[in-house]
Amino acid sequence: MADAAQPAKTRPKKGVSPMILGLGLALSLAGAGFYATFNGLVSLDSDLFARNGATGPEGDAGGFEYVAVTPITINLGGRGDSRHLRFSAQVETAPGAAAQVSHLMPRILDVLNIYLRALDAHELEEPAALIRLRGQMLRRIQVVAGPGLVNDLLITEFVFN
Fold it and tell me: For the whole model, what pTM was predicted?
């Protein structure tokens, strides 16, 4: 009988739905970002161009210099199999570091030759091979050159036949 005398418990209301609150917060942040960019409080152009090494509105390339890597031709085939890899690239250096990197080019070529010769032909046939190889070669060049001298490796020729 005591159960009948007590009113049924109802769930309390949560108030504002978390989804509506999140949507309102996202719209507020987007509006603040637009306002700051539109009024010139935040400028993304110079930072974006400097990071990517692209030519900015003023026509400069962010001060990067490029050093050509001597083209390398490597025989990857085993006995009786003549498969060759032809590789050439440009090394993107920090401003004023091109002379130092050019001076280190024999060591860079040595590191690249050793790495590329250690590869199997089937590793080069994979679809994502070039991306992986580029990262590996860049890391090796950066170790040889030292910290802060080499920013990127731009592959200009990669022919495997």
Answer: 0.60
